[in-house]
Design a protein that fits this description.
The chain is an alpha+beta fold. The protein has one domain. 23% of the residues lie in helices and 28% in strands. The strands form 3 sheets. Strands 1, 2, 5 and 6 form a 4-stranded antiparallel sheet that branches. A hairpin with a 2-residue loop joins strand 3 and strand 4. The longest helix is centred in the N-terminal third of the chain and has 14 residues. It is globular. The mean pLDDT is 89. This is Prolyl 4-hydroxylase alpha subunit Fe(2+) 2OG dioxygenase domain-containing protein.
Length: 110
């Protein structure tokens, strides 16, 4: 909902340490945050749209590490392919990302 988007945007702006990204690949602002409760809620709502299995691997959730990006007129993120991320979970199970989730928190006109 619009209220949830506003809450998420406000949360990231209050908690995030925003850094200016200025390279040939990206011009904008980025904040990197971790929040297990938020990623658990996002996964609960997104998992119905994610294949339960991909490349013989089972979908188990989202990484706790979230990236929030802000762009203003003239700023951009050049086309690219996301890389895979891997880590060992708290229970000792090895996990690797195969998909990226992007949530747009702006109006389509922005």
């Amino acid at each position: 909902t619009a209220e949830e988007v506003d809450a998420l945007r406000g949360w990231s702006e209050r908690r995030g340490e925003w850094k200016h990204a200025d390279s040939a690949r990206r011009k904008g602002f980025i904040a990197e945050l971790s929040d297990g409760a938020l990623t658990a809620e996002l996964w609960r709502r997104l998992q119905g749209y994610v294949p339960t299995e991909l490349e013989g691997k089972r979908a188990v959730g989202l990484r706790d590490h979230l990236r929030f990006l802000q762009y203003f007129p003239g700023q951009f993120f050049a086309p690219h392919c996301d890389g895979s991320q891997s880590a060992t979970a708290g229970d000792g199970v090895f996990q690797r990302s195969l998909l990226s989730a992007i949530l747009y928190c702006s109006d389509p006109e922005d």
